[in-house]
Design brief:
This protein is an alpha/beta fold. Helix content is 37%, strand content 14%.
Length: 289
């Protein structure tokens, strides 16, 4: 997801979460029912409309959806369309500028959609993400988190990799962002690919902040792709079916379960998404450790 993409998907936009983690699930298997980040079907939505993308999501077997608002549709209309296709909107994405200048509208839209979660998928920044930008974001997040919490909503930020710029004493700017935000009202959604690509260990990061992570995007990085890249950019073909890339999924899922992740979303940005999503679903269904 790139910040320059059309507002139709509001950066991280359309997404299908999964059912909340079931504590009764046996240890050693995927701890939930996966949902789909509908940004995966952006090209279909552009060509054939959002209804077609919703149809495809249903055909894959998904039930829930995380979405931004769509140009030309009200929140109520979007919710109605999702329900018509057998989907439930659980969470919505908004842009950073909206958090600064449109919180009342965000609350209104979230209530019309019936969501429980509101997230920001990207922080505007020039060149490398820096301390000043990080602290400014934390201030906006704290304000937004407080307002949304008072309205019964959970606010989260979705990482993209640039936040892991070195900071002080071996820490990163992501650590600073966590430290400077209110743990009661500001949470995080881990994108696994955008954690691995910049050279971080997702399982360790989940364990480091077990009370801050509530959502997760499931995305695998192609084998052989060098890590340590903080650009938040990689070729779309480097987004591969789950279980075929670099990610140690048993370690990630064990840490995620321990951290209490509430929703998981498959996100597949590849040009072969229609083929890869069924492969990812099969992998999750068969995974044991």
């Amino acid at each position: 997801m790139k910040h320059i993409l059309p507002f139709l998907f509001a950066l991280a936009a359309l997404a299908l979460p999964f059912q909340p983690t079931n504590a009764a699930e046996a240890e050693g298997s995927f701890p939930g029912t996966p949902g789909l980040q509908l940004y995966s079907l952006r090209e279909m939505a552009k060509a054939d409309g959002v209804a077609a993308a919703f149809d495809q999501a249903s055909k894959f077997g998904f039930k829930n959806i995380e979405t931004s608002l769509v140009d030309g549709m009200t929140a109520a209309e979007l919710k109605s369309l999702a329900e018509e296709k057998g989907l439930t909107i659980v969470s919505m994405m908004v842009q950073f500028g909206q958090l600064k200048n449109g919180l009342d509208q965000i609350v209104q839209d979230a209530k019309a959609l019936g969501v429980n979660y509101v997230g920001c998928p990207w922080l505007p920044h020039k060149d490398a993400f820096d301390e000043a930008e990080c602290r400014a974001a934390a201030e906006v997040f704290n304000q937004a988190g407080d307002v949304l919490a008072k309205n019964g909503l959970k606010f989260f930020y979705h990482n993209h990799g640039y936040e892991f710029e070195p900071y002080q004493d071996g820490s990163t700017l992501f650590d600073l962002l966590v430290a400077e935000t209110d743990p009661k009202t500001v949470f995080f959604e881990m994108d696994v690919l955008w954690t691995v690509l910049p050279g971080q260990d997702p399982a360790q990061l989940l364990s480091k902040y077990p009370d801050r992570w509530i959502l997760m995007h499931l995305k695998d990085l192609k084998k052989g792709v060098p890590t340590g890249d903080l650009s938040a950019k990689t070729d779309l073909t480097n987004d591969v079916a789950l279980g075929t890339g670099q990610v140690d999924w048993p370690a990630v899922f064990q840490a995620a379960q321990d951290a209490g992740i509430e929703y998981y979303f498959i996100e597949d940005e590849s040009p072969t998404v229609i083929d890869q999503i069924p492969q990812s679903l099969s992998f999750l269904d068969e995974l044991r450790w």
